[in-house]
Amino acid sequence: MIHDPPPLSARALILDLLDTGAPPDFSTGELVQAGAALGLEATAIRTALTRLRQEGRVRTLDRGRHTIGARAAPLQQRIQGWRRVEARRQPWAGGWLLAIAGPQDRADRTVWRHTMRALDLEGFVEAETNVWARPDNLAGGPLIRDRLRDLDAAPNLLVVAASGLDEARTARFPALWPVAALQAAHGQRAAALAASAARLPDLPLAAAAAESLLTGRAAIRAILRDPLLPEALCPPAALSALIAAMDDYDRRGKAIWARYLAL
């Protein structure tokens, strides 16, 4: 079962728009206009923009337009690659990647929150106390340390490849992911995209822009949070169908936003 996303904050809206890279930059006026479609006040957009610039997540270009900043660039690259996520899979030889957290990793709540998000985005689940696991079936497996670091995971997080697990773990680990629920949620998300696409032509332009952003955002989040399990653990058809549905929906949404921002 899928749930409606919470209201979008000014901060999240700005980063979402900049993360798409199409267009690659926005003026303050365009961001304020985008906020209006979502019911966000101009002051909220301007305040969020200032704070994001201070954090290095947004930078201002010479011509007074804003684009993604260095601190947000790794996540932007990940988001822009949603169409290609399935290419990360490779044949699975039965090995595992383990991420092991120590007390120092949990000491800073902000760092630990970022660590949990990074582990989730890379498909890890908690297998036992302080140990997160995922199948070692992604291209460039050893590079996962860099991917976790780029997502602001704790720098001392221990990530190791493991094989030859004991019989109990070998039996238990493949069942850590709720595969049936994940596939059902992907199917429901693809159906939601189709239903929204049918509605969009009849909506006022601002309402259509808001709906296309929120609906597309939820679908992309679902795609990026798919753990990309080996086919032996989770058949890929549901994810493939969701990506195809989002590819079509994305074109519709971009056309709507181009018209809306041109007003």
UniProtKB/TrEMBL annotation:
InterPro entries: PaaX-like_N, WH-like_DNA-bd_sf
Listed GO biological process terms: DNA-templated transcription
Transmembrane segments: none
Domain Transcriptional repressor PaaX-like N-terminal: 10-66
Xref: Gene3D superfamilies: 3.30.70.2650, Winged helix-like DNA-binding domain superfamily/Winged helix DNA-binding domain
Domain of life: Bacteria
Name assigned to this protein: Transcriptional repressor PaaX-like N-terminal domain-containing protein
Natural source organism: Zavarzinia compransoris
